[in-house]
Amino acid sequence: MTADLSQIVKAYDVRGVVPDQWDEALAELFGAAFVQVTGADAIVVGHDMRPTSPGLSGAFARGAAARGADVTLIGLCSTDQLYFASGHYDLPGAMFTASHNPAQYNGIKMCRAGAAPVGQDTGLADIRALAEQWSAEGAPAPAASPGTVTERDTLTDYAAHLLSLVDLSAMRPLKVVVDAGNGMGGHTVPTVFASLPLTLVPMYFELDGTFPNHEANPLDPANIVDLQERVRLEGADLGIAFDGDADRCFVVDERGEGISPSAITALVAARELAKHPGGTVIHNLITSWSVPEVVRENGGKPVRTRVGHSFIKQEMAHTGAIFGGEHSAHYYFRDFWNADTGMLAALHVLAALGSQDGPLSALVAQYDRYRGSGEINSTVADQAGRTEAVKAEFTQRPGVTTDELDGLTVSADDWWFNLRPSNTEPLLRLNVEARDEATMAKVRDEVLGLVRES
């Protein structure tokens, strides 16, 4: 009987509880399947600080080598460091991490050569099918010439590449608090920031996949409270928080106030457009109105996409975009193989702040023009029915437009909202933005009333 891996093979990656849902034996099959599907004769493999990561990544490497691929183990790394290795060496790669999930989870993010994403439609479904088949029938016979497994340190080269992409020569001394959340930022930040005129105040840099201080998910306000307090206590110029695998970053200003990822997207977009005049910038449909406005003001072309990194990366490849940003604090750069890197976004913020004399709050004010609700989740039994009720209520109003690129987006002159279903849970996710706080609250409460109507 064929095993069912549907619970752990997601849209973009493998993720599940170890050893309940998957283990090293299955990781070895994933390694063999990855080589079979990609046709690779060499790959790179890295892992985060979770207790199960070294064993799982080692098993994956054994499976890949048994199928004839030479494996380069780069050891402890952030996800964007693995993308760097994939791009720099032009090899397919696999990163063992469960990002911000709790300690008992682990997963694999896979990419083709040049950090091109592997998702359900680009190989992941085929990898799952092979792993299911082999878990039921037994592993395939080893290749006639098994591959080698060697180790290589890429941290210094990764840091040098990032620093080559941002002009930091005019940067004034800054004091920055960094909360690594016991994740991979504690590994990468000291090397990347070493040459910069920074006073670094580290928080939770000890690599610990049990996350003893707080979850490594900076988008949850509860997880940046320590950072906010420390920024104020230290009188720092800013604070930066990274998630568990350090591919996302979240920024707080000198007052300890969180800066929306949309404002960071707009700031970085303006800087990238100064480097690449007339370029295209991708943004998903729940980023702020300010993002396309700033892109146009700086001579660029904004392109709106669905939510999700596979859609962003597809559009970047299709349009040749120079940059892409999401509300979730993922930032994608053409100069980084279209992959997402929170560290490069953080360097842009440091460069922008350090090249002028004002505080960060004043700098980002020009990019933070509207009032947003943030994402609000509602548990509902009938996602489609509740969405249709909202649509029916708002489409009859004058001056209102709708589209269904991703869920339901309703727009008026002074507000918009997006209501979209979760793919994995019985949830509807609401994002509202308006020109002022009162209007935002009014629209938010009206939509929630319709969504949560029993």
Please describe what this structure looks like.
This protein is 36% helix and 22% strand. With 454 residues, it is α/β, with parallel strands linked by helices. The protein has four domains: 140 residues, Alpha-D-Glucose-1,6-Bisphosphate, subunit A, domain 3 (Alpha-D-Glucose-1,6-Bisphosphate, Chain A, domain 3, 3-Layer(aba) Sandwich), CATH 3.40.120.10; 88 residues, Alpha-D-Glucose-1,6-Bisphosphate, subunit A, domain 3 (Alpha-D-Glucose-1,6-Bisphosphate, Chain A, domain 3), CATH 3.40.120.10; 105 residues, Alpha-D-Glucose-1,6-Bisphosphate, Chain A, domain 3, CATH 3.40.120; 81 residues, TATA-Binding Protein, CATH 3.30.310. Strands 1, 2, 3, 4, 5, 6 and 7 form a seven-stranded mixed sheet that branches. Strands 17, 18, 19, 20, 21 and 22 form a six-stranded antiparallel sheet that branches. Helix 1 packs across helix 2 and helix 5 crosses helix 6. It starts with 13 loop residues before the first strand and ends with a helix. This is Phosphomannomutase/phosphoglucomutase.
